[in-house]
Fold:
Amino acid sequence: MNIKDVARLSGVSISTISRVINNSAYVSPEIKERVEKVLTETGYRPNSLAKELLRNKTDTIGVMLPRIDLSTFAQTIDGISSTLTESGYNILLANTRDSQEEELRYLTLFYEKRVDGILYFATDINERHLQALSKLRIPVVIVGQSGSYLNCPAVRLDNFGAARAMVNYLVSIGHRRIGFIGVSDHDHDIGTLRREGYLAALRDNGIPADPELMWIGDFEYPSGERGARRLMELPGERPTAVFCVTDRLSISTSGWLNRNGYRVPEDVSVACIDDPGLLSFCHPSVTTMSFDYMAAGSLAAKMIIEYIEGRVPEPSEILLPYTIQIRDSTKPLEGAII
Structure:
């Protein structure tokens, strides 16, 4: 069964069948009813690729993220999916495993699949990305980083402000010797901006930065354990609080401290950024700076739809605020004047 057969059974032209299927032009109610009856009886479905070529639109958004196993990304994807589905779009999801080569390969794949737009969870943006994206000529919205280098609209988190506010909170409850467990600058917003927020808070309070109190690892749980061990085995005065740049690092840091004779928060307070839900069920529950990741995903989805429809997204960059969640892993330092 093809469109010619449907036209013959309906007693109308192929172009009329096309207008009914695509609802692209006026067809009298009587003819439309007759065509739809034949479509129902025959079970004919138009070839989706042919329709896409005709419309020059696939109703598909490519979503590229560096890893799929982080709950913060899962929440963001949930927000993206809800908004795109409501607007009639499908998602083509790519997990690059934090590989630049995979990112570039998927950009080419998205182009070949003729996606209407790309939501790009960026980490380390460089000249190769700029060249690849400029060749695609596809609307792109950056998620999680600034889009200024690529001249793309973006949705990002106020990572600098969140880190600065959290460390200022630790200082406000009496802590001045505050350890730092972070990640490399490969991820600019988390690796660089959260570290700079920590350092800015120290300057705010006249506390000299001590490189010995700063541990740079990676995003995996064991890195928090290694950082905690390194900080607590330093000669001299140990830190009374530890600031971790992610929830994972805070969980493993607290775990290592509790297993090695340090009580959290009686001996060491622990705080972090990101709040995937698990932190409130840890023992002790973890003080953190929380972002609305579902809202971030929804905003990014709305932005790419505007871009596809020919409207310039305003504002071109959205900076999401943070909310402090004070829980059981932090307490005022005993004897401190607050």
